[in-house]
Amino acid sequence: MNKTEEVTQFIAELDNPLKEEMDRVRHIILETSEKMTEDMKWKAPNFVYKGNMATFNPRAKKFVNLTFHKGALIEDTTGLLEGDQKEARVARFHSMEEVEAKKDQLQQVVRAWIAKMDEL
To answer: 64: which strand partners?
Structure first.
């Protein structure tokens, strides 16, 4: 798993009631594929494979907000991604139970991103 100390420290120090849920989403993304890496972008954890895939909004307090910057490129058959913007889509998780319930959907979206980036 391609965890970085910088992101680990950021989450540990984060004042957010859903930081455990955020960390679980992080682990699901990184354990989906060794191709996925993480870094910090816009003062938030960011996930990367041949470009930025998604970034947390750590200021959201009512749900874990994961923005997929070019989510419209992802063929999401799971229904996980929400939104109708030209490019961006979001995934939201309100509780640990919801994170676990949507684990397979999240992993499918991550795999779809990797497949799309490998096509380009």
So the answer is: 93
| CA 26/CA 80 separation, integer angstroms | 16
- Amino acid at site 71: G
Q: Which residues contact 5 (CB under 8 A, 6 or more apart)?
A: none
Helix (H) or strand (E) holding 40: strand 37-41
Spell out the domain ranges in the chain: 5-119
Q: What is the CATH number of domain 5-119?
A: 3.90.1150.200
Which residues lie below 8 Å from residue 83, measured CB to CB, with a gap of 6+? 71, 89, 90
pTM score? 0.96
Give the span between the Cα atoms of 30 and 80, in whole angstroms. 17
Contacts of 23 (CB under 8 A, 6+ apart): 11
pLDDT (tens digit, 9 = 90+) per residue, 21-75? Answer: 999 999 999 999 999 999 999 999 999 999 999 999 999 999 999 999 999 999 9
CB atoms closer than 10 angstroms to residue 61: 11
Number of H helices, E strands in the chain: 4, 5
